[in-house]
Amino acid sequence: MALTPSKMLSLNTIAPNFDLLDTVSNSNKNLQALRGEKATVIMFICNHCPYVIHLNQGIADLAKAYTKKGVAFVGISANDVENYPQDGPEHMKANAAKNDFIFPYLYDETQAIAKQYAAACTPDFYVFDKDLKLAYRGQFDDSRPGNGKPVTGKDIKAAIDALLNDDLVSEKQVPSIGCNIKWKF
Fold it and tell me: Which of 83, 143, 160, 179 is in the most buried spot, having the most CB atoms within 10 Å?
């Protein structure tokens, strides 16, 4: 595991489209069908990263709290499953059920979508506005495994709340940090 920060994709970038396998429903889903009325949260996550595992409950709770407010959530795993089989689609489906994810958990087999989003780590969070312009990219909050800080989601909640209230999202954003995406070579 290499500790890796987000690359911090440029704000106002239009969300790259995708059409990926949803491991929960076993059908392909695309961005246009999944986007939220008020905002769309794209999360690059995986099953085995301790930084993601640390946030799983917080991620699930966040989605439950904000989905009813017009915010869509999408989890994507792009890890190389040949070398990290625990991140394969069948395990993704089980992980989604275990963590009570109410959002699609998509498999980026070719890793092309992760590259288009400039995703670097798990977890890597992106919040897009109603027009699919990037408004926030960065950490969930400042809690990390072992640092004793509670998982609150304060950073990502502040961004989502600003969008819901038609306010500007602060440009002061802290990169997420976690395990590097397991790229195919």
Answer: 160
